[in-house]
Amino acid sequence: MKRKLNDDTTMDDFMRATPAAIRVVLKHRMLCVGCPIASFHTVADAAREHDLDEDQLLSDLQAAIDDG
Known about the structure:
With 68 residues, this protein is mainly α. 51% of the residues lie in helices and 0% in strands.
């Protein structure tokens, strides 16, 4: 069964569990890769900090999960 994002998932946990997510993070020009705050920020926090559309970011991250 494929993994699904949840509200408690931190950016760091997500990038470690789904390496394809790193491409999504870089595509959105986010600085989460290697950031010490990534272990505390959820996807929603990161979207807010980077002034991104949260729904679009979630959609792109979910696509990274689905693509494996």
